[in-house]
């Protein structure tokens, strides 16, 4: 991690722990911050991300709701407009289908439609990611839906360090921010300093430097890209891995600089490829790096199928270290 | 909020002063809406407008029972709510005409008037779309201990939206100071509510433990009294309530809906206008009570008419937003 000061990085946390720590710190810092969602208090969330928070902050600030995603998202929005700073927990990213009107027609537009008079400082935390054998309604990566809407910001952390710093910034932001967590990464460990820090929204991070090809990867695909980069090193290909960290605002400058340097790029994101995040980022690259490119920009995302249950089928639907490395070798003309 | 210092004071108007004030407010909404219709038919107003004519007693009766800092959310048919909560007619017209001086700098228009200074969280063009926002404002008021209440205006059409029942459930669970005001004007767009609404509207509240009552929406004093009790209850921490206000939309669903015989008769419309007009009823009552005479009411009419005329003149002359403002305010 290039952004990490190694002198103070002695402590390791899981992604789940770093998220809980960010929430706890922000709730201590600002009494207006509270979290609400299904089974988040005593149950601590089905993924156990929030275990223990209710003990420190009580059931009013770690608020269990009925199974009413649209309703409690709307309530959070009204509370955000009138002086609170809610953090909504939507257990599975698939359930954002239930909250789209509240996020798209209400939260995203209230500032603009009111001529800047009302603000909606809320965060919606939810998940993405397949391969948990959860089938088509608990495995999707639907973040592109949110990226499409002016007024929303979309955050996609890939490490415990990034997750904590980005979540703290999201909570302090005066806009609706959608924060996607890869449910398969909750146990991923990484260095997280004890000292307080934040990471601004809209700043990409070069996770690994290289000279032959740029792997632009988001969230769950960052670890895949880093694994692929190791495989590629064995083949004599030097891959740079760039993580945008936030899809909106998008740090186009860092992406463009990297591709201008390497002249080749693969964009890897676990959402559907069609009309998706990879298409947007590939377009940014071709618009800005056309004369620097040695090969067409390749996109890798989820297959255009509902996520199947059977492990044999499900594993085919998402990019892996191996498929990314193969694609990179082909682009670089390596064996 | 410039009104913050006075915002928590209870309304000091009472008796004849209050009743005359309510009469004036209803008349202002009526003349405002007639002016909107005129602007639209003369092609001076872009887009559409959903007129509130006939329903004035609902907005005025409810909003007069509120503190200035209490919250409301409104609907696509929202001009009346905004004016009743204290919006200025000139800034309203400016917004309807897409002018920079409008409440939303011309970015919201007829269906999205919002104004923090009068507690207006915004009119909302998604049917049932503001039920969450109003309930959330009540949630914040309770958490922050401000003593404010929130009124959620919605039409009978919103009774078909699931989110209403989700938030009503939570409002009851958490005893939130919110009053759900269902304006039953008998028609959701072009369809009589009986064709879309099963069961009893009033039974919907008690299913969640939310006390519910109905009131004659053409009688502004009755609406005011009913609301006042529910607001008192909410402010005392006793939780949400549902007020069904029976009223009638004189005009079409929107200004362009002029041939309405396929869904309701001219006779039905005429009957409401003749027998149940809220402004006429209030005027007659004021005279019968000796609170005003015909000349005094005519004077009110002339004053309101002049104020509307000045406001329209202001709005028509006001400049449009600068093109470079199109990207402003997307993010805070």
What does it look like?
- The complex is a heterodimer of chains A (335) and B (332).
- Helix content of chain A is 36%, strand content 19%.
- Chain A is built from twelve helices and 14 strands.
- Chain A is globular, with a radius of gyration of 20 Å.
- In chain A, 56% of the residues are buried.
- Chain B is α/β, with parallel strands linked by helices and 332 residues long.
- Chain B has a domain at 51-88 and 110-289: Rossmann fold (3-Layer(aba) Sandwich), CATH 3.40.50.970.
- Chain B is built from eleven helices and eight strands.
- In chain B, strand 3, helix 6 (162-173) and strand 4 form a beta-alpha-beta unit.
- Chain B starts with 14 loop residues before the first helix and ends in a 15-residue tail after the last helix.
- The relative contact order of chain B is 0.16.
- The model of chain B is unreliable at 1-5 (pLDDT under 50).
- The chains are: A alpha/beta (335), B alpha/beta (332).
- Chains A and B meet through helix 3, helix 4 and helix 5 of A and helix 5 and helix 6 of B.
């Amino acid at each position: 991690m290039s952004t990490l000061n190694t002198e103070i990085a002695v402590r390791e946390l899981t992604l789940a722990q770093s998220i809980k720590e960010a929430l706890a710190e922000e709730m201590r810092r600002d009494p207006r911050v509270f979290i609400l969602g299904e089974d988040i208090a005593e149950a601590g969330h089905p993924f156990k991300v929030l275990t223990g928070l209710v003990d420190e902050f009580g059931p009013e600030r770690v608020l269990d709701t009925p199974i009413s995603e649209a309703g409690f998202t709307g309530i959070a929005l009204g509370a955000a407009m009138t002086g609170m700073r809610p953090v909504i927990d939507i257990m599975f990213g698939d359930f954002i289908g239930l909250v789209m009107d509240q996020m798209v027609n209400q939260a995203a537009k209230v500032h603009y439609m009111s001529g800047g008079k009302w603000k909606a400082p809320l965060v919606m935390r939810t998940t993405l990611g397949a391969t948990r054998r959860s089938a088509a309604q608990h495995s999707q990566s639907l973040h592109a839906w949110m990226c499409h809407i002016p007024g929303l910001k979309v955050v996609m952390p890939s490490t415990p360090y990034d997750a904590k710093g980005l979540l703290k910034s999201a909570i302090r932001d005066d806009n609706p921010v959608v924060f996607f967590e890869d449910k398969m990464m909750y146990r991923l460990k990484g260095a997280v300093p004890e000292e307080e820090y934040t990471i601004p929204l809209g700043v990409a991070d070069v996770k690994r430097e290289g000279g032959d090809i740029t792997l632009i990867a988001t969230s769950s695909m960052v670890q895949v890209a880093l694994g692929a980069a190791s495989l590629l090193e064995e083949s004599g290909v030097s891959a740079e891995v760039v993580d945008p960290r936030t899809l909106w605002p998008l740090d186009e400058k860092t992406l463009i600089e990297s591709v201008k340097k390497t002249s080749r790029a693969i964009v890897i994101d676990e959402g559907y490829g069609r009309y998706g995040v990879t298409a947007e980022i590939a377009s940014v690259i071709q618009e800005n790096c056309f004369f620097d490119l040695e090969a067409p920009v390749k996109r890798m995302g989820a297959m255009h199928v509902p996520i199947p249950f059977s492990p044999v089928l499900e594993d085919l639907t998402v990019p892996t270290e191996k498929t990314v490395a193969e694609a990179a070798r082909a682009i670089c003309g390596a064996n | 909020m410039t009104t913050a210092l006075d915002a928590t004071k209870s309304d000091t108007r009472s008796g004849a002063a209050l009743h005359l004030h309510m009469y004036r407010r209803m008349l202002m909404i009526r003349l405002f809406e007639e002016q909107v219709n005129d602007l639209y038919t003369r092609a001076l107003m872009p887009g559409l407008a959903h007129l509130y004519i006939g329903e004035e007693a609902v907005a005025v009766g409810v909003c007069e029972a509120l503190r200035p800092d209490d919250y409301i959310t409104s609907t696509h048919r929202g001009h009346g709510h905004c004016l009743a909560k204290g919006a200025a007619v000139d800034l309203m017209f400016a917004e309807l005409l897409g002018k920079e001086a409008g409440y939303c700098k011309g970015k919201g228009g007829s269906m999205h008037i919002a104004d923090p200074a009068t507690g207006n969280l915004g009119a909302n063009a998604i049917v049932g779309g503001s039920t969450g926002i109003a309930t959330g404002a009540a949630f914040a008021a309770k958490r922050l201990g401000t003593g404010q209440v929130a009124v959620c205006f919605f039409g009978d059409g919103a009774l078909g939206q699931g989110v209403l029942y989700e938030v009503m459930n939570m409002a009851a669970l958490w005893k939130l100071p919110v009053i759900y005001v269902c304006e039953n004007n008998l028609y959701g767009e072009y369809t009589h509510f009986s064709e879309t609404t099963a069961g009893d509207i009033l039974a919907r509240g008690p299913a969640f433990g939310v006390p519910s009552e109905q009131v004659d929406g053409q009688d502004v004093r009755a609406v005011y009294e009913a609301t006042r009790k529910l607001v008192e209850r909410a402010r005392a921490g006793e939780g949400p309530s549902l007020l069904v206000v029976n009223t009638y939309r004189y005009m079409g669903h929107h200004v362009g809906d002029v041939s309405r015989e396929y869904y309701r008769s001219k006779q039905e419309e005429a009957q409401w206008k003749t027998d149940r007009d809220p402004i006429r009823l209030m005027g007659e009552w004021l005279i019968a009570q000796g609170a005003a005479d015909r000349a005094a009411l005519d004077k009110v009419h002339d004053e309101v008419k002049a104020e509307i005329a000045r406001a329209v003149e202001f709005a028509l002359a006001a400049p449009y937003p600068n093109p470079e403002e199109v990207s402003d305010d997307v993010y805070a």
